[in-house]
């Protein structure tokens, strides 16, 4: 198998779509594309062809992608969603309620709207630069606790912190948690770059909540999968976040 695509569990694959940028492919029936495929995140605007190639290399059909779940609105995750929507697959795109205006193109500079205390000063300076990916006007919202018939059952978990509408996706039958950018695993497991967070006050509580879920494989938006002591390591990260007064 291509070294930039790896299987995490039955019907669950990580696809590296750019430098340390991940998307995840899920088989709705837990094995192939007979009941459709679900994509979690889409990389940047240039990741589309790479994603399509990787899906084909797994002997699956890109046109079977019926749903795209976005962990959040940032352009390195939502970047190729619009392109998929225009393709033969024409999937439905879903995101967290608070991120919907950004994903739909109704809010071109979401950082600017964040409340004081939710965004750092540097974050405000960067606000004009951090733009969502190409708009998906028909995107719909996913709420906390929703369950989808994907790979043995997928549960939507609200994970505000990195953005107000950030989502995590829990596959309890597979022991997998896909947590978007709630944490980062580039070089080491961390909370990621502070300035681009837009709901900082909720971050520690989100990490704590995610760490209570039952999983042994943690897939993040950036960097390799955490497959050893994943739950304990996320709990330790939550502890550190809380000690720094961000709880
Ligand atoms: Zn990201």
Features:
247 residues, alpha/beta, Metallo-beta-lactamase, Chain A, 12 strands, five-stranded mixed sheet, seven-stranded mixed sheet, binds zinc ion
What is the class in the CATH system? Alpha Beta
Low-confidence stretches: none
**Residue-averaged pLDDT, rounded?**
91
Q: How helix-rich are the residues, as a percent range?
A: 10-25%
Distance between the termini: 42 Å
CA radius of gyration: 17 Å
Q: How many structural domains are formed by the residues?
A: 1
Residue fraction in strands:
15-25%
Outline the structure in words.
The chain has 247 residues and is α/β, with parallel strands linked by helices. 23% of the residues lie in helices and 22% in strands. It has a single domain (5-246), classed as Metallo-beta-lactamase, Chain A (4-Layer Sandwich), CATH 3.60.15. The strands form 2 sheets. It has a 7-stranded mixed beta sheet, with helices on one face. It has a 5-stranded mixed beta sheet with strand order 8-9-10-11-12, with no helix packed on it. β1 (5-9) and β2 (12-18) form a beta hairpin. The model has no long low-confidence stretch (mean pLDDT 91). Bound molecules: zinc ion.
Detail the topology: elements first, then pairings.
Layout: E1 5-9, E2 12-18, E3 21-27, E4 37-40, H1 48-57, E5 65-69, H2 75-78, H3 81-86, E6 92-96, H4 100-104, H5 121-126, E7 140-142, E8 147-148, E9 154-158, E10 167-171, E11 176-178, H6 203-211, E12 217-219, H7 230-246
Parallel strand pairs: 4-5, 5-6, 6-7, 11-12
Antiparallel strand pairs: 1-2, 2-3, 3-4, 8-9, 9-10, 10-11
Helix pairs in contact: 6-7
Bound molecules: zinc ion (ZN).
